[in-house]
Design a protein that fits this description.
Chain A is mainly beta. In chain A, 0% of the residues lie in helices and 45% in strands. Chain A has strands at 9-13, 18-23, 33-38, 45-50, 55-56, 61-64, 70-75, 84-90, 101-106. A five-stranded mixed sheet of chain A has the order 1-9-8-3-4, with no helix packed on it. Chain A has a four-stranded antiparallel sheet with strand order 2-7-6-5, with no helix packed on it. The chains are: A mainly beta, B mainly beta. The A-B interface holds A 2, 28, 30-32, 34, 36, 41-46, 49, 87, 91-92, 94-100 and B 4, 33, 35, 42-43, 45, 48, 56, 88, 90, 92, 97, 99-104, 106-114, 116.
């Protein structure tokens, strides 16, 4: 069973920031949070991961709350190509992908 | 070739056939994984290999038989499959499979494009 919870779907206007939340309340102190995305019928693609500090790379930013029980993936300027299912995984269950959040970027 | 490759990309087989899926990673990783993704369902972890040793079998039926001859190659041998086995089969690799997360290290997974399997 997945040990993360995410909203099933979200819409975002093109060019706006997309903020995707994830709850991982059972995470332990030394376990990372990982984010992946899957564009229709392709293999999932790694986006970013973090432990407790906020992280940023060329694809996205990751904000982790101080208690580490939740995180938010931020796509700063969403494009149509960011339409995908976004998965958050963490801790012992990091190989278990839940249903993710289906993000639709609208023109 | 770079990353994780899978062959074939598409496979149609009858219930009595025997076929194999192949995965190859060119990342120097030591862990490899098989996942199954049925239509409109989440990814299901099937098998995990760490340094060529199987460390996880997620209650997969015996008609699916994995083989990991070395850290770069992973096979999934298929025999007497059922129509409900039709799905996208994904292979992934990572530096090392840290199953329990005890070490606190990272093991980012890199996925192949998948094999679309149809069982008639």
């Amino acid at each position: 069973d997945a040990k993360t919870t995410q909203p099933p779907s979200m819409d975002c206007a093109e060019g706006r920031a997309a903020n995707l939340p994830c709850n991982h309340s059972t995470i332990s102190g030394n376990e990372y949070v990982y984010w992946y995305r899957q564009i229709h019928s392709q293999g999932p693609q790694y986006i970013i991961h973090g432990l407790k500090n906020n992280e940023t790379n060329e694809m996205a930013s990751l904000i982790i709350t101080e208690d580490r029980k939740s995180s938010t993936l931020i796509l700063p300027h969403a494009t149509l190509r960011d339409t995908a299912v976004y998965y958050c995984t963490s801790g012992t269950y990091k190989y278990i992908f839940g249903t993710g959040t289906r993000l639709k970027v609208l023109a | 070739e770079t990353g994780v490759t899978q062959t074939p990309r598409h496979l149609v087989m009858g219930m009595t056939n025997k076929k194999s899926l192949k995965c190859e990673q060119h990342l120097g990783h030591n862990a490899m994984y098989w996942y199954k993704q049925s239509a409109k369902k989440p990814l299901e972890l099937m098998f995990v290999y760490n340094f060529k040793e199987q460390t996880e079998n997620n209650s997969v039926p015996s008609r699916f038989s994995p083989e990991c001859p070395n850290s770069s190659h992973l096979f999934l041998h298929l025999h007497t499959l059922q129509p409900e086995d039709s799905a996208l089969y994904l292979c992934a690799s990572s530096q090392e499979a840290i199953i329990q997360g005890l070490a606190g290290g990272t093991d980012t997974q890199y996925f192949g494009p998948g094999t679309r399997l149809t069982v008639l």
